[in-house]
Amino acid sequence: MNRNGEERFMRVALALGERGLGTTWPNPSVGCVLVREGRIIGRGWTQPGGRPHAEMEALARAGAAARGSTAYVTLEPCANPGHTPPCCRALAEAGVARVVAACIDPDPRVNGKGLAHLRSAGVDVQLGLLAREARRQHLGLYRRILEGRPMFALKLALSLDGRIATACGHSHWVSGERARMEAHRLRAQHDAILIGSGTALADDPELTCRLPGLFWASPVRILLDRRLRLPPQSKLALGAREVPLWLFTAPDPDPERCRQLEACGVEVIPTPEPFLDSVARRLGERGITRVLVEGGGGVAGALLRRGLVDRLHLVYAPIWLGGDARPAVGPLGLARVDEARRWRTVERLEMGEDLLITLEPEDEARCSPGS
């Protein structure tokens, strides 16, 4: 098969993998298609909760037809046994003749072992097809395994002059309805959503996914609240038994305040300094791979200063709010323009009158087949 045909099938696998984003943590959301004689005979993606894996789903759909087929999979098949046999072994035993994997699984339990098992079983293996695209999709896994933290995507709805609210704090609504629906879709594709206490007090948000039929995909809510200011009667606290709320606060919070919030179902997590680094590490330890940040300018600036932002989703509305309005990003402490991190646009999408631009850091390491 020519390169274009191979890429077409891998893009189908990537589209399948996207379906599970936000629902499979701590496992990655993988896509897999089985192809025989130029026709897809089985397809699968990682199911909610991380099991079954994509390869097992595709094999189940293909049945006996899997023998002699080629598997296109967005991540190296796992080699570690769990509730089911490892996927590399299942593929070999099903008689799959060839496996095309986009990139290596960096988990030490896998990290080349899955491909090695396939080769030892006589399966032809190719690594690196659409590796860059696959690594973008699995960036949360790479961050958690290699750096001990999740990936952070910062989402901002802002005016043409980079403002998110008027001088008195009014922000409903900067963007239009289509852009707000896209924001809810982004929530469903992330394991967690994060804001600061200022946004929680000003807006009293629910932070759930309110697209029809997708409330079940509402991510874990994360609140950065060092002074433990969240009222027990807030929407976040009152909804904590339905959608988890993890509140990160200073190391010695007020015991009575903790008791009131914990009675609502809020998990209060005392966190040492450096605060943001500790929050990121603890989220990684809990298996979170993808965090959508919807906080105000203070949280945005703090994360950018720490170099923790991996992706930007900027929704520009065709309005001006002026120099007295609230900026999208707080102080960064830059003395020179050339100290600023540069970003590259990876997607532009018109949403009615608004424009969504997705950016990633220019200095992000390029994906290689073995990375």
Strand content: 15-25%
Task: Evaluate the radius of gyration.
Answer: 22 Å
Q: In what order do the strands lie side by side in the largest sheet?
A: 11-10-9-8-12-6-13-16-15
Q: Major β-sheet, in short?
A: 9 strands, mixed
The termini sit apart by 25 Å
Series of H and E elements? HEEHEHEHEHHEEHEHEHEHEHEHEEEE
- Give the count of helical stretches: 12
* Main structural class: alpha/beta
What sort of overall outline do the alpha carbons produce when their principal axes are compared?
A: globular
Mean pLDDT: 95
Determine the fraction of residues in helical runs and give it as a percent range: 25-40%
Query: What quaternary form is this?
Result: single chain
Unreliable stretches covering 5 or more consecutive residues: 365-371
Number of strands: 16
Polypeptide structure, described:
With 371 residues, the chain is α/β, with parallel strands linked by helices. The protein is 29% helix and 23% strand. The protein is built from 12 helices and 16 strands. A 9-stranded mixed β-sheet has the order 11-10-9-8-12-6-13-16-15. Strands 2-1-3-4-5 form a 5-stranded mixed β-sheet, sandwiched between helices. Strands 7-14 form a two-stranded antiparallel sheet. Helix 8 links the parallel strand 8 and strand 9. Helix 3 runs parallel beside helix 4. The protein starts with a helix and ends in a 10-residue tail after the last strand. 46% of the residues are buried. The C terminus is likely disordered.
